[in-house]
Amino acid sequence: MVLPEVPCDVLVIGSGPIGATYAKEILEPKKGALPTSPKIIMVESGAQESKIPGDHKKNAVTFQKDIDAFVHIIKGSLHVSSVPTRVDPNLTLPPVSWSPRGKQNFNGQNQEQDIYSNLDANAVSRNVGGMSTHWTCATPRQLEGVEGTDIFDRTTWNKLYARAEELISTRKDVLNSSIRQRLVLEILRDAFPDRNVGPLPLAAKKVEGKNLITWSSSSTVLGDLLSGNPAKLDLRDQHICEKLEFETVQGVTKVKYAIVKDLAKPRSPRDPHDRIKIKPKYVVIAGGPILTPQLLYNSGFRPEFDDPDEGEPPEKPFLSLPALGRNLIEQTMCFCQIVLKDKWVRELQTRYWGEECEAHRKKFDKDADPLRIPFDDLDPQVTLPVTAQTPWHTQIHRDAFSYGAVPPAIDKRTIVDLRYFGRVQPRWRNRVKFSKKLTDAFGLPQPTFDVKLSKEDRNVTHKMMEDMEAVAGKMGGYLPGSEPQFLAPGLALHVCGTTVAQRRDPNKSDADQKNESCCDETSKIWGVENLYVGGLNVIPGSNASNPTLTAMCFAIKGAEAIRKKLNPTKGLYEAEDDSQDDVLASDSE
């Protein structure tokens, strides 16, 4: 069957904040672009679920009035990646009913998954905006020397981070008016004067004149690219890229076609096509740390062949990608909730906290509201930053998660959550691999995890728990049922390294460098001229912080490389000041 062809300059696969960054930086880089712009098609396997494409769902006022009601939104947006097959029998099933025989694959479970090496809670989001429609919006920078690598020099990192923060609207002053923000900062700064306690960097802004917050997402990055007539960006939801096809001409390999399926389109005798062949000049896969290597695998790329299940190496050398799925890291997590100490609550009741608080006290007497601070006081967002001595990311706040809901008999204004994310070092043996037999719900190879913590990782995680307990003890007592606990592997949803980047070495060939990594510092896949990847999956080195901002840095760098190739003579992209051209270029270029 001959499929319809659709040409474009750039195909972006995935609509999360990384795909959005690529689109924005290609079409509207900071330096500005001339009115004529490349044609970009963005495909997303999930649906558009908000009025503004990719908007953060927590921007609905209802959820800001009751953050715990947002829990079901998060749960509904996450689809678990790998569920081991259950073999325990149902002992009360009627004898006449059919029952599973042994270890079989059913209900989307994965019979190839070892339960002892799984990331049980890892999940993907399939919707326009990806994870950014329900994330916490924490956007810290990685700490030099403790996280990440020197793939870029420090000057370049600073410029990339500054641009990423601009795109996603990162700020530290969002909660300056919050009474509890000021109280928690005061408590922790007094208790830990050497820890540089401060506001958590947030991709958000306060709504003027109201105790509401506009949380950033893909829609923030894209801005007006999806509006106007015609829109600069062709976003196609419920379209899944199933496979890439390649051609090699005069020794240069490129993606020739992307096979894309319209998941919702009916098929009839008159119109039997629910697939198209997109013919792009450049391709960006930004599907996240699991779905990006999955698409590469389904397109013929193969990792290191030390596993009998992998079969024979690919016939075409460019499809050999030993590091595919390797170097996987995921943060360990611990969590607790505390109820503020009585002495801190008295501080809330007696001290002057501003005009809003005074107005609330006049409106509600002690019997009506003993706490005597506004009911809509914004929840705190505080952090003790990563250091060499404390290599873990902290979020001391109140937010909606699939765990940590508050019992109704407790005043929510007295609750503080502590979430700690532990640094894990990359190891070659930790990986996600893909089945040659089983598929996921969308017909692509089933991902299977093989992940173990090292002794060092375990020791760091133990110290992290001790630190969380010490910090929690300064603020209050544990909420019953939310005492300190480790959370299921994968729940951080911060998997990195599965298509890891490496700085291009002028003394090595692509074939040599692909033995250690999947792409160069611009995120271009080794050996394929027009194929780029984006996401947490490209980040090299260890990671403790929320890595979204760092992944955006790589996307900015990749978009810059594509811009140059689309127009090497600067016909479309002309710098306002030639002396400032390539301000994001690293010293290796």
From TrEMBL:
GO MF terms, alphabetically ordered: oxidoreductase activity, acting on CH-OH group of donors
Domain named Glucose-methanol-choline oxidoreductase C-terminal: residues: 426-555
Alphabetically ordered keywords of this record: FAD, Flavoprotein, Oxidoreductase
Gene3D superfamilies given in the database record: FAD/NAD(P)-binding domain
Pfam families reported for this sequence: GMC_oxred_C
Co-factor(s): FAD
InterPro entries, per database record: FAD/NAD-bd_sf (IPR036188), GMC_OxRtase_C (IPR007867), P2Ox-like (IPR051473)
Signal peptide: none
Family note: Belongs to the GMC oxidoreductase family.
PANTHER family associated with the record: PYRANOSE 2-OXIDASE
Name of the molecule in the record: Pyranose 2-oxidase
Organism per entry: Talaromyces islandicus
